[in-house]
Amino acid sequence: MSTPCLPIAPAAPATRRTRQAQVAWGSRVVTVGGDAPVRVQSMTNTDTQDAIGTAIQVKELAIAGSELVRITVNTPEAAAQVPYIREQLDRMGIDVPLIGDFHYNGHRLLQDYPACAEALSKYRINPGNVGKGDKRDRQFGQMIEAALRWNKPVRIGVNWGSLDQELLAQLMDENALRAQPWDAKSVMYEALITSALESARFAQEEGMRQEQVILSCKVSGVQDLIAVYRELAKRCDNPLHLGLTEAGMGTKGTVASSVVLGILLQEGIGDTIRVSLTPQPGESRTQEVVIASEILQSLGLRSFVPSVTACPGCGRTTSTTFQELAKQIDDYLRAQMPVWRDKYPGVEKMKVAVMGCIVNGPGESKHADIGISLPGTGEAPAAPVFIDGQKALTLRGDNIVSEFHQLVETYVEKRFGTQPAAAEAA
Protein backbone atom coordinates (compact mmCIF):
# COMPACT_ATOMS: atom_id res chain seq x y z
CA MET A 1 0.00 0.00 0.00
CA SER A 2 1.45 3.37 -1.00
CA THR A 3 1.82 6.10 1.61
CA PRO A 4 -0.06 9.32 0.75
CA CYS A 5 2.16 12.33 0.24
CA LEU A 6 -0.28 14.87 1.67
CA PRO A 7 -2.91 14.77 4.40
CA ILE A 8 -6.52 14.60 3.27
CA ALA A 9 -7.97 18.10 3.43
CA PRO A 10 -11.31 18.47 5.21
CA ALA A 11 -14.26 19.38 2.99
CA ALA A 12 -15.75 22.84 3.40
CA PRO A 13 -18.14 25.07 1.45
CA ALA A 14 -16.42 27.39 -1.01
CA THR A 15 -16.23 31.07 -0.15
CA ARG A 16 -19.11 33.14 -1.49
CA ARG A 17 -18.13 36.17 -3.56
CA THR A 18 -21.10 38.55 -3.70
CA ARG A 19 -21.86 42.09 -2.72
CA GLN A 20 -23.72 42.70 0.53
CA ALA A 21 -27.27 43.97 0.79
CA GLN A 22 -28.91 45.30 3.94
CA VAL A 23 -32.52 44.52 4.81
CA ALA A 24 -33.63 46.53 7.82
CA TRP A 25 -36.49 47.31 10.12
CA GLY A 26 -35.80 49.88 12.82
CA SER A 27 -32.52 49.02 14.49
CA ARG A 28 -32.61 45.43 13.15
CA VAL A 29 -30.34 45.08 10.11
CA VAL A 30 -30.09 41.72 8.35
CA THR A 31 -27.09 41.60 6.04
CA VAL A 32 -27.35 39.44 2.92
CA GLY A 33 -24.32 38.40 0.89
CA GLY A 34 -20.64 39.17 1.26
CA ASP A 35 -19.31 37.87 4.55
CA ALA A 36 -22.78 37.61 6.14
CA PRO A 37 -24.12 34.19 7.17
CA VAL A 38 -26.39 32.46 4.67
CA ARG A 39 -29.82 33.66 5.75
CA VAL A 40 -33.00 31.63 6.24
CA GLN A 41 -36.13 33.01 4.60
CA SER A 42 -39.74 31.82 4.66
CA MET A 43 -43.17 32.92 3.47
CA THR A 44 -46.60 33.04 5.08
CA ASN A 45 -49.59 31.22 3.61
CA THR A 46 -52.21 33.30 5.40
CA ASP A 47 -54.53 35.77 3.71
CA THR A 48 -52.68 39.06 4.20
CA GLN A 49 -56.02 40.80 4.70
CA ASP A 50 -56.10 38.94 8.02
CA ALA A 51 -53.61 41.16 9.83
CA ILE A 52 -53.77 39.29 13.16
CA GLY A 53 -53.50 35.83 11.62
CA THR A 54 -50.63 36.91 9.38
CA ALA A 55 -48.77 38.59 12.23
CA ILE A 56 -49.11 35.46 14.36
CA GLN A 57 -47.71 33.25 11.61
CA VAL A 58 -44.85 35.68 10.95
CA LYS A 59 -44.04 35.53 14.67
CA GLU A 60 -44.04 31.72 14.60
CA LEU A 61 -41.71 31.68 11.60
CA ALA A 62 -39.37 34.23 13.18
CA ILE A 63 -39.20 32.32 16.47
CA ALA A 64 -38.45 29.14 14.49
CA GLY A 65 -35.42 30.90 13.00
CA SER A 66 -36.58 32.69 9.86
CA GLU A 67 -34.56 35.89 9.49
CA LEU A 68 -36.68 37.30 6.65
CA VAL A 69 -40.38 36.63 6.10
CA ARG A 70 -42.23 37.25 2.84
CA ILE A 71 -45.93 38.06 2.71
CA THR A 72 -48.27 38.23 -0.27
CA VAL A 73 -49.36 41.74 -1.27
CA ASN A 74 -51.82 41.13 -4.08
CA THR A 75 -54.84 43.38 -3.53
CA PRO A 76 -55.61 46.86 -2.23
CA GLU A 77 -57.14 45.24 0.85
CA ALA A 78 -53.93 43.29 1.52
CA ALA A 79 -51.75 46.37 0.98
CA ALA A 80 -53.89 48.34 3.41
CA GLN A 81 -53.28 45.75 6.15
CA VAL A 82 -49.48 45.60 5.84
CA PRO A 83 -48.86 48.56 8.22
CA TYR A 84 -51.12 46.93 10.82
CA ILE A 85 -49.26 43.62 10.47
CA ARG A 86 -46.01 45.47 11.07
CA GLU A 87 -47.55 47.27 14.03
CA GLN A 88 -48.73 43.99 15.61
CA LEU A 89 -45.29 42.47 15.19
CA ASP A 90 -43.61 45.48 16.77
CA ARG A 91 -45.96 45.24 19.75
CA MET A 92 -44.97 41.58 20.17
CA GLY A 93 -41.27 42.46 20.01
CA ILE A 94 -40.78 40.72 16.66
CA ASP A 95 -38.48 42.87 14.53
CA VAL A 96 -38.05 40.42 11.63
CA PRO A 97 -38.01 42.31 8.30
CA LEU A 98 -41.05 41.80 6.05
CA ILE A 99 -40.75 41.28 2.30
CA GLY A 100 -43.64 42.22 0.06
CA ASP A 101 -44.34 39.70 -2.71
CA PHE A 102 -45.76 41.61 -5.69
CA HIS A 103 -47.18 40.32 -8.97
CA TYR A 104 -49.05 42.14 -11.77
CA ASN A 105 -50.20 45.19 -9.78
CA GLY A 106 -47.26 45.96 -7.49
CA HIS A 107 -46.59 49.29 -9.18
CA ARG A 108 -50.08 50.52 -8.31
CA LEU A 109 -50.11 49.14 -4.77
CA LEU A 110 -46.77 50.67 -3.85
CA GLN A 111 -47.89 54.01 -5.25
CA ASP A 112 -51.42 54.02 -3.83
CA TYR A 113 -50.50 52.66 -0.37
CA PRO A 114 -47.36 54.50 0.76
CA ALA A 115 -47.76 53.20 4.33
CA CYS A 116 -47.46 49.68 2.93
CA ALA A 117 -44.36 50.63 0.94
CA GLU A 118 -42.80 52.10 4.07
CA ALA A 119 -43.70 49.20 6.40
CA LEU A 120 -42.08 46.59 4.16
CA SER A 121 -38.32 46.08 4.35
CA LYS A 122 -37.82 44.67 0.84
CA TYR A 123 -39.85 44.25 -2.34
CA ARG A 124 -39.92 41.08 -4.43
CA ILE A 125 -40.47 41.91 -8.13
CA ASN A 126 -41.17 39.26 -10.76
CA PRO A 127 -40.10 40.70 -14.13
CA GLY A 128 -42.27 38.14 -15.92
CA ASN A 129 -45.53 39.74 -14.81
CA VAL A 130 -45.02 43.47 -14.26
CA GLY A 131 -46.63 44.24 -17.61
CA LYS A 132 -46.25 43.65 -21.33
CA GLY A 133 -44.82 45.73 -24.14
CA ASP A 134 -44.38 49.41 -23.36
CA LYS A 135 -46.05 48.97 -19.99
CA ARG A 136 -43.35 46.64 -18.69
CA ASP A 137 -40.52 49.15 -18.35
CA ARG A 138 -42.85 51.86 -17.05
CA GLN A 139 -44.45 49.67 -14.39
CA PHE A 140 -41.15 48.07 -13.39
CA GLY A 141 -39.69 51.56 -13.14
CA GLN A 142 -42.51 52.65 -10.82
CA MET A 143 -41.65 49.83 -8.42
CA ILE A 144 -37.98 50.81 -8.46
CA GLU A 145 -39.01 54.43 -7.81
CA ALA A 146 -40.85 53.28 -4.69
CA ALA A 147 -37.81 51.29 -3.54
CA LEU A 148 -35.63 54.37 -3.99
CA ARG A 149 -38.13 56.67 -2.27
CA TRP A 150 -38.32 54.46 0.80
CA ASN A 151 -34.71 53.23 0.66
CA LYS A 152 -35.66 49.54 0.28
CA PRO A 153 -33.67 46.76 -1.40
CA VAL A 154 -35.41 44.62 -4.00
CA ARG A 155 -35.28 41.00 -5.07
CA ILE A 156 -35.74 40.48 -8.76
CA GLY A 157 -37.21 37.01 -8.69
CA VAL A 158 -37.53 35.24 -12.03
CA ASN A 159 -39.58 32.04 -12.10
CA TRP A 160 -39.82 29.66 -15.03
CA GLY A 161 -43.55 29.31 -14.40
CA SER A 162 -44.03 33.01 -15.15
CA LEU A 163 -41.12 33.75 -17.45
CA ASP A 164 -41.23 36.83 -19.68
CA GLN A 165 -42.73 35.29 -22.80
CA GLU A 166 -41.63 38.15 -25.09
CA LEU A 167 -38.02 37.67 -24.02
CA LEU A 168 -38.27 33.90 -24.41
CA ALA A 169 -39.73 34.28 -27.92
CA GLN A 170 -36.94 36.69 -28.86
CA LEU A 171 -34.25 34.29 -27.67
CA MET A 172 -35.91 31.38 -29.48
CA ASP A 173 -35.93 33.39 -32.71
CA GLU A 174 -32.25 34.22 -32.25
CA ASN A 175 -31.52 30.59 -31.52
CA ALA A 176 -33.20 29.49 -34.76
CA LEU A 177 -30.64 31.56 -36.69
CA ARG A 178 -27.67 29.81 -35.10
CA ALA A 179 -25.64 27.46 -37.26
CA GLN A 180 -26.06 24.90 -34.49
CA PRO A 181 -29.19 25.79 -32.50
CA TRP A 182 -29.29 25.10 -28.75
CA ASP A 183 -31.87 22.72 -27.37
CA ALA A 184 -35.04 24.22 -25.90
CA LYS A 185 -33.94 23.76 -22.29
CA SER A 186 -30.72 25.71 -22.86
CA VAL A 187 -32.71 28.56 -24.37
CA MET A 188 -35.00 28.55 -21.36
CA TYR A 189 -31.98 28.69 -19.01
CA GLU A 190 -30.65 31.67 -20.96
CA ALA A 191 -34.02 33.40 -20.79
CA LEU A 192 -34.16 33.04 -16.99
CA ILE A 193 -30.68 34.46 -16.50
CA THR A 194 -31.10 37.22 -19.11
CA SER A 195 -34.38 38.32 -17.53
CA ALA A 196 -32.74 38.63 -14.11
CA LEU A 197 -29.61 40.42 -15.32
CA GLU A 198 -31.38 42.82 -17.67
CA SER A 199 -33.89 43.71 -14.96
CA ALA A 200 -31.06 44.29 -12.48
CA ARG A 201 -29.31 46.50 -15.00
CA PHE A 202 -32.51 48.49 -15.53
CA ALA A 203 -32.91 48.93 -11.76
CA GLN A 204 -29.36 50.23 -11.48
CA GLU A 205 -29.92 52.65 -14.35
CA GLU A 206 -32.91 53.97 -12.42
CA GLY A 207 -30.67 54.62 -9.40
CA MET A 208 -30.56 51.38 -7.35
CA ARG A 209 -27.18 50.43 -5.92
CA GLN A 210 -26.07 47.07 -7.26
CA GLU A 211 -25.64 45.50 -3.82
CA GLN A 212 -29.27 46.33 -2.99
CA VAL A 213 -30.53 44.24 -5.92
CA ILE A 214 -30.83 40.59 -4.94
CA LEU A 215 -31.45 38.07 -7.72
CA SER A 216 -33.15 34.69 -7.99
CA CYS A 217 -33.96 32.37 -10.90
CA LYS A 218 -36.26 29.67 -9.58
CA VAL A 219 -37.18 26.40 -11.27
CA SER A 220 -38.64 23.17 -9.90
CA GLY A 221 -36.05 20.68 -11.21
CA VAL A 222 -32.91 19.89 -9.20
CA GLN A 223 -30.50 19.66 -12.14
CA ASP A 224 -32.12 22.67 -13.81
CA LEU A 225 -31.59 24.83 -10.72
CA ILE A 226 -27.95 23.77 -10.44
CA ALA A 227 -27.30 24.60 -14.10
CA VAL A 228 -28.99 28.01 -13.90
CA TYR A 229 -27.34 29.16 -10.67
CA ARG A 230 -23.86 28.04 -11.66
CA GLU A 231 -24.12 30.24 -14.73
CA LEU A 232 -25.86 33.12 -12.92
CA ALA A 233 -23.10 33.17 -10.30
CA LYS A 234 -20.49 33.45 -13.06
CA ARG A 235 -22.18 36.45 -14.64
CA CYS A 236 -22.85 38.66 -11.63
CA ASP A 237 -21.84 39.39 -8.05
CA ASN A 238 -25.28 40.44 -6.82
CA PRO A 239 -26.51 38.65 -3.67
CA LEU A 240 -28.39 35.49 -4.69
CA HIS A 241 -31.50 33.94 -3.19
CA LEU A 242 -31.81 30.15 -3.56
CA GLY A 243 -34.90 28.02 -3.59
CA LEU A 244 -36.42 25.14 -5.49
CA THR A 245 -39.82 26.49 -6.48
CA GLU A 246 -42.81 24.22 -6.04
CA ALA A 247 -40.58 21.65 -4.34
CA GLY A 248 -43.59 19.56 -3.29
CA MET A 249 -44.82 17.89 -0.13
CA GLY A 250 -43.20 15.93 2.65
CA THR A 251 -40.29 13.67 1.82
CA LYS A 252 -40.14 14.62 -1.86
CA GLY A 253 -39.92 18.35 -1.20
CA THR A 254 -37.51 17.95 1.69
CA VAL A 255 -35.11 15.68 -0.18
CA ALA A 256 -35.16 17.66 -3.43
CA SER A 257 -34.55 20.97 -1.64
CA SER A 258 -31.83 19.51 0.57
CA VAL A 259 -29.97 18.00 -2.39
CA VAL A 260 -29.99 21.07 -4.61
CA LEU A 261 -29.33 23.63 -1.87
CA GLY A 262 -26.56 21.47 -0.44
CA ILE A 263 -24.78 21.22 -3.78
CA LEU A 264 -24.98 24.93 -4.59
CA LEU A 265 -24.08 26.11 -1.08
CA GLN A 266 -21.08 23.77 -1.06
CA GLU A 267 -19.94 25.50 -4.26
CA GLY A 268 -20.22 28.92 -2.60
CA ILE A 269 -23.44 29.89 -4.39
CA GLY A 270 -26.34 31.39 -2.43
CA ASP A 271 -26.82 34.09 0.20
CA THR A 272 -30.40 33.43 1.33
CA ILE A 273 -32.36 30.19 1.10
CA ARG A 274 -35.96 29.08 1.31
CA VAL A 275 -37.36 25.56 1.38
CA SER A 276 -40.66 25.90 -0.49
CA LEU A 277 -42.62 23.03 1.03
CA THR A 278 -46.29 22.34 0.49
CA PRO A 279 -47.43 21.72 4.10
CA GLN A 280 -49.03 18.41 4.97
CA PRO A 281 -52.62 18.85 6.24
CA GLY A 282 -52.32 20.28 9.74
CA GLU A 283 -48.55 20.67 9.52
CA SER A 284 -46.99 23.84 10.85
CA ARG A 285 -45.60 26.31 8.33
CA THR A 286 -42.45 26.45 10.44
CA GLN A 287 -41.34 23.06 9.09
CA GLU A 288 -39.76 24.78 6.09
CA VAL A 289 -37.67 26.92 8.45
CA VAL A 290 -36.53 23.88 10.43
CA ILE A 291 -35.39 22.10 7.25
CA ALA A 292 -33.60 25.18 5.88
CA SER A 293 -31.78 25.59 9.20
CA GLU A 294 -30.82 21.91 9.24
CA ILE A 295 -29.37 22.18 5.72
CA LEU A 296 -27.12 25.06 6.78
CA GLN A 297 -26.15 23.34 10.02
CA SER A 298 -25.38 20.04 8.26
CA LEU A 299 -22.99 21.87 5.91
CA GLY A 300 -21.28 23.60 8.82
CA LEU A 301 -22.37 27.03 7.57
CA ARG A 302 -24.53 27.95 10.59
CA SER A 303 -25.45 26.63 14.02
CA PHE A 304 -29.05 27.08 15.15
CA VAL A 305 -29.80 24.38 17.71
CA PRO A 306 -27.75 21.73 19.55
CA SER A 307 -27.46 18.66 17.34
CA VAL A 308 -28.58 15.23 18.49
CA THR A 309 -26.73 12.22 17.10
CA ALA A 310 -28.79 9.03 17.33
CA CYS A 311 -28.35 5.60 15.77
CA PRO A 312 -31.08 4.32 13.44
CA GLY A 313 -31.60 1.10 15.40
CA CYS A 314 -31.13 -2.52 14.38
CA GLY A 315 -31.68 -6.04 15.72
CA ARG A 316 -29.46 -5.18 18.68
CA THR A 317 -31.89 -2.45 19.78
CA THR A 318 -35.34 -3.97 19.92
CA SER A 319 -36.36 -1.55 22.68
CA THR A 320 -37.70 1.86 21.66
CA THR A 321 -36.12 3.55 24.68
CA PHE A 322 -33.28 5.20 22.76
CA GLN A 323 -35.70 6.39 20.06
CA GLU A 324 -37.98 7.96 22.65
CA LEU A 325 -35.08 9.56 24.49
CA ALA A 326 -33.57 10.94 21.28
CA LYS A 327 -36.89 12.52 20.31
CA GLN A 328 -37.49 13.91 23.80
CA ILE A 329 -34.04 15.49 23.90
CA ASP A 330 -34.33 16.89 20.37
CA ASP A 331 -37.78 18.36 21.05
CA TYR A 332 -36.60 19.77 24.37
CA LEU A 333 -33.53 21.45 22.86
CA ARG A 334 -35.56 23.05 20.08
CA ALA A 335 -38.21 24.27 22.51
CA GLN A 336 -35.57 25.85 24.75
CA MET A 337 -33.64 27.67 22.01
CA PRO A 338 -35.75 30.87 21.91
CA VAL A 339 -34.70 31.42 25.56
CA TRP A 340 -31.29 29.76 25.46
CA ARG A 341 -30.15 31.73 22.39
CA ASP A 342 -29.69 34.84 24.55
CA LYS A 343 -29.20 33.21 27.95
CA TYR A 344 -26.55 30.68 26.91
CA PRO A 345 -24.42 32.03 24.05
CA GLY A 346 -22.79 29.20 22.10
CA VAL A 347 -25.25 26.51 23.19
CA GLU A 348 -26.40 26.11 19.58
CA LYS A 349 -23.07 24.37 18.83
CA MET A 350 -23.50 21.74 21.52
CA LYS A 351 -23.58 18.08 20.42
CA VAL A 352 -25.63 15.43 22.20
CA ALA A 353 -25.45 11.69 21.44
CA VAL A 354 -28.20 9.19 22.24
CA MET A 355 -27.02 5.75 21.21
CA GLY A 356 -28.76 2.39 21.36
CA CYS A 357 -26.10 -0.26 22.10
CA ILE A 358 -22.48 -1.03 22.84
CA VAL A 359 -21.26 -1.27 19.21
CA ASN A 360 -20.92 2.44 18.40
CA GLY A 361 -22.52 3.88 21.53
CA PRO A 362 -19.50 4.61 23.72
CA GLY A 363 -17.34 5.82 20.82
CA GLU A 364 -19.99 8.14 19.41
CA SER A 365 -20.82 9.45 22.89
CA LYS A 366 -17.17 10.36 23.44
CA HIS A 367 -17.26 12.56 20.33
CA ALA A 368 -20.27 14.49 21.65
CA ASP A 369 -20.27 17.14 24.37
CA ILE A 370 -22.61 14.93 26.35
CA GLY A 371 -23.74 11.47 25.31
CA ILE A 372 -25.38 8.33 26.60
CA SER A 373 -24.99 4.74 25.45
CA LEU A 374 -28.16 2.84 26.30
CA PRO A 375 -28.18 -0.93 26.75
CA GLY A 376 -29.08 -2.97 23.67
CA THR A 377 -30.93 -6.28 23.60
CA GLY A 378 -29.32 -8.71 26.05
CA GLU A 379 -26.87 -6.13 27.44
CA ALA A 380 -26.54 -5.29 31.11
CA PRO A 381 -29.13 -2.67 32.21
CA ALA A 382 -26.56 0.10 32.51
CA ALA A 383 -26.12 3.32 30.51
CA PRO A 384 -22.70 5.01 30.64
CA VAL A 385 -22.79 8.79 30.23
CA PHE A 386 -19.87 10.64 28.63
CA ILE A 387 -19.24 14.33 29.24
CA ASP A 388 -16.61 16.24 27.26
CA GLY A 389 -15.16 12.98 25.98
CA GLN A 390 -14.79 11.28 29.35
CA LYS A 391 -16.98 8.70 31.06
CA ALA A 392 -18.65 10.61 33.88
CA LEU A 393 -21.09 8.13 35.42
CA THR A 394 -23.35 5.19 34.68
CA LEU A 395 -27.11 5.39 34.96
CA ARG A 396 -29.14 2.36 36.06
CA GLY A 397 -32.72 1.55 36.91
CA ASP A 398 -36.07 2.80 35.68
CA ASN A 399 -35.31 6.53 35.63
CA ILE A 400 -32.48 6.63 33.07
CA VAL A 401 -34.43 8.92 30.72
CA SER A 402 -35.36 11.57 33.29
CA GLU A 403 -31.90 11.45 34.90
CA PHE A 404 -30.15 12.00 31.56
CA HIS A 405 -32.54 14.84 30.79
CA GLN A 406 -31.47 16.52 34.04
CA LEU A 407 -27.80 15.93 33.23
CA VAL A 408 -28.24 17.78 29.93
CA GLU A 409 -29.85 20.74 31.68
CA THR A 410 -27.07 20.85 34.27
CA TYR A 411 -24.40 20.63 31.55
CA VAL A 412 -25.90 23.54 29.62
CA GLU A 413 -26.07 25.72 32.73
CA LYS A 414 -22.54 24.87 33.80
CA ARG A 415 -20.85 25.20 30.44
CA PHE A 416 -22.75 27.99 28.73
CA GLY A 417 -24.27 29.92 31.63
CA THR A 418 -21.05 31.78 32.34
CA GLN A 419 -20.18 32.64 28.74
CA PRO A 420 -20.17 36.32 27.74
CA ALA A 421 -22.91 37.30 25.30
CA ALA A 422 -21.63 37.06 21.75
CA ALA A 423 -24.50 37.19 19.32
CA GLU A 424 -23.85 35.98 15.78
CA ALA A 425 -23.26 38.77 13.27
CA ALA A 426 -26.55 40.24 12.17
UniProtKB/TrEMBL annotation:
Q: Which cofactor does it need?
A: [4Fe-4S] cluster
- The IspG TIM-barrel domain sits at 30-291
Q: Its domain of life?
A: Bacteria
Any one of the GO BP annotations: terpenoid biosynthetic process
Boundaries of every IspG C-terminal domain copy: 308-409
Which pathway is this protein assigned to?
Isoprenoid biosynthesis; isopentenyl diphosphate biosynthesis via DXP pathway; isopentenyl diphosphate from 1-deoxy-D-xylulose 5-phosphate: step 5/6
- Catalytic activity annotated for this protein? (2E)-4-hydroxy-3-methylbut-2-enyl diphosphate + oxidized [flavodoxin] + H2O + 2 H(+) = 2-C-methyl-D-erythritol 2,4-cyclic diphosphate + reduced [flavodoxin]
Keywords (alphabetical) are:
4Fe-4S, Iron, Iron-sulfur, Isoprene biosynthesis, Metal-binding, Oxidoreductase
Q: How is the cofactor bound?
A: Binds 1 [4Fe-4S] cluster.
A Pfam family annotated for this UniProt entry: GcpE
| One GO MF term attached to the UniProt entry | 4-hydroxy-3-methylbut-2-en-1-yl diphosphate synthase activity (ferredoxin)
Q: Return the PANTHER family for the record.
A: 4-HYDROXY-3-METHYLBUT-2-EN-1-YL DIPHOSPHATE SYNTHASE, 4-HYDROXY-3-METHYLBUT-2-EN-1-YL DIPHOSPHATE SYNTHASE (FERREDOXIN), CHLOROPLASTIC
Q: What protein name applies here?
A: 4-hydroxy-3-methylbut-2-en-1-yl diphosphate synthase (flavodoxin)
